[in-house]
């Protein structure tokens, strides 16, 4: 049986190395690499969520005439242009990862993101703040696509969604840090539960939001330094005909896997397309193939519509509640408590995500989100019920993201996987921006129930679209997407 020393020409060919990789049952790289990738995700989602609570203070300081009650009117511009940056970054930089490698581009994308956050920290006015959000978005958009591609290509076949979700835990921690730091640094002291008695904002400390973006830049620097340790994706190396390097990495993975038990025989039924190098323009690989054109259409629609719900809550929940007449400290506390639902659900999903096909999680997520919206609307002055509702909202609108990340990466071939992910998730972020831009003006004129049900309803539509996505759970990656 082939174990640690596969020396036959067949086993060292491109299809042979992929077959050996596919037979591995558990995570076979160093677990340190999960932490390294996860730290990047922590910063990425810290940056997505740090605007949620802190934007009110940012707007009041940088934009003339802005008040806590009217901050929602100014929120769409930085959110939309940040997401425009996502699209630019993911469309331009992601295909480069298909040509120069996943690891190399992970260093570049985090550098861009960190520089954008540093620019935010020192933005002298509102226009520069918005420009800085665009730059940050460029880095984040590409980083999300490349990280999910990388994890998908090195994780074991039967646990790709599990390890995507495990790394996504760091996203939840980043979201929690972004919102809670915003609450501490950018809101005034209030007795719990209407605020935090140790909040720091005051007439003498009205720039806590700058400290938040400075912290983000430091997190990015740490992530860059650690990412130098990551190995390249063996699948990508094979597409570049760098067989010796791919073979060396897979041998190391096999040696770790052997510590858990004997390895199965490789299944050499690998399509020849799996070792095809990327074309000069990887998008042509996708748009000239009817299978991938259909997948792009369905997955793009799913992400585009689903992100309307996600970004309305992730970037604007505090501003939404303030526009609905909640005092800003109380609105911030409700949003901050909700992040515990994000963290708890993500941890739970690492244990259960592989029990169902990817597409089935989205209807469950939509139901949980709707229940949370109803509870907040019914809470009235009962803050405990509002907290429960917020926890369910954050748990629900994030429940579907990691399995859909996995499915999106699984749905495209190695030679254009990052590019495919960029087209559906990256460009799909536009939905979040358009949604916030379109629905923000009408929310103050609606009841709390009507406003939150409107925001949550887009996730219901996305759940219906999800049922037309491919079956990917537990299948060989190159059989799903030859």
TrEMBL record:
PROSITE patterns: MFS, SUGAR_TRANSPORT_1, SUGAR_TRANSPORT_2. Keywords: Membrane, Transmembrane, Transmembrane helix, Transport. Residues 33-474 form the Major facilitator superfamily (MFS) profile domain. CDD domains: MFS_SV2_like. It is a multi-pass membrane protein. The chain crosses the membrane at residues 29-46, 75-93, 105-123, 129-151, 163-188, 208-228, 296-314, 334-353, 360-377, 383-401, 422-443, 449-468. One of its GO terms (molecular function) is transmembrane transporter activity. SUPFAM superfamilies: MFS general substrate transporter (SSF103473). The keyword Transmembrane helix applies. InterPro entries: MFS_dom, MFS_sugar_transport-like, MFS_trans_sf, Sugar_transporter_CS. Pfam families: Sugar_tr (PF00083). PANTHER family: SYNAPTIC VESICLE GLYCOPROTEIN 2 (PTHR23511). This is MFS transporter.
């Amino acid at each position: 049986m082939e174990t640690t020393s596969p020396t036959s020409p067949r086993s060292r060919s491109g299809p042979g190395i992929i077959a050996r990789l596919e037979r591995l049952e558990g995570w076979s790289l160093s677990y340190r690499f999960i932490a390294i990738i996860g730290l990047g995700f922590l910063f990425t989602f810290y940056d997505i969520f740090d605007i949620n609570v802190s934007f009110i203070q940012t707007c009041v300081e940088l934009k003339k005439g802005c008040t806590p009650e009217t901050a929602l009117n100014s929120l769409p511009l930085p959110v939309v242009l940040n997401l425009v940056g996502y699209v630019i970054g993911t469309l331009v930089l992601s295909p480069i990862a298909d040509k120069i490698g996943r690891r190399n581009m992970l260093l570049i994308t985090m550098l861009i993101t960190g520089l954008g956050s540093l620019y935010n920290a020192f933005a002298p006015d509102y226009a520069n703040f918005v420009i800085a959000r665009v730059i940050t978005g460029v880095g984040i958009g590409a980083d999300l696509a490349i990280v999910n591609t990388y994890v998908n290509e090195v994780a074991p076949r039967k646990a790709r969604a599990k390890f995507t979700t495990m790394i996504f835990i760091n996203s939840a921690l980043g979201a929690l840090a972004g919102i809670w730091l915003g609450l501490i640094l950018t809101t005034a002291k209030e007795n719990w539960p209407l605020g935090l008695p140790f909040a720091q904002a005051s007439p003498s400390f009205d720039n806590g939001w700058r400290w938040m973006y400075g912290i983000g830049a430091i997190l990015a620097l740490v992530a860059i330094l650690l990412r130098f340790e990551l190995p390249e994706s063996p699948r990508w190396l094979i597409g570049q005909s760098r067989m010796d390097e791919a073979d060396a990495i897979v041998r190391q993975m096999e040696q770790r896997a052997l510590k858990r038990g004997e390895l199965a025989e490789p299944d050499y039924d690998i399509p020849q397309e799996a070792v095809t190098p990327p074309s000069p323009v990887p998008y042509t690989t996708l748009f000239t193939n009817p299978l991938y054109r259909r997948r792009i259409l369905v997955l793009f629609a799913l992400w585009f519509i689903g992100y309307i719900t996600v970004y309305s809550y992730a970037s604007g929940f505090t501003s939404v509640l303030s526009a609905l007449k909640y005092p800003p400290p109380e609105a911030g506390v409700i949003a901050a408590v909700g992040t515990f639902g994000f963290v708890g659900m993500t941890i739970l999903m690492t244990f259960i995500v592989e029990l169902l096909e990817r597409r089935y999680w989205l209807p469950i997520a939509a139901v949980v989100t709707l229940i949370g919206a109803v509870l907040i609307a019914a809470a009235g002055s009962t803050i405990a019920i509002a907290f429960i509702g917020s926890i369910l909202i954050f748990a629900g609108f994030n429940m579907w993201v990691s399995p859909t990340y996995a499915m999106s990466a699984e749905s495209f071939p190695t030679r254009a996987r990052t590019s495919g992910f960029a087209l559906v998730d990256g460009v799909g972020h536009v939905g979040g921006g358009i949604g916030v831009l379109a629905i923000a003006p009408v929310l103050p004129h609606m009841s709390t129930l009507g406003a939150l049900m409107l925001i949550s309803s887009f996730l219901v539509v996305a759940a219906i679209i999800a049922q037309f996505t491919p079956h990917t759970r537990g299948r060989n990656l190159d059989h799903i997407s030859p």
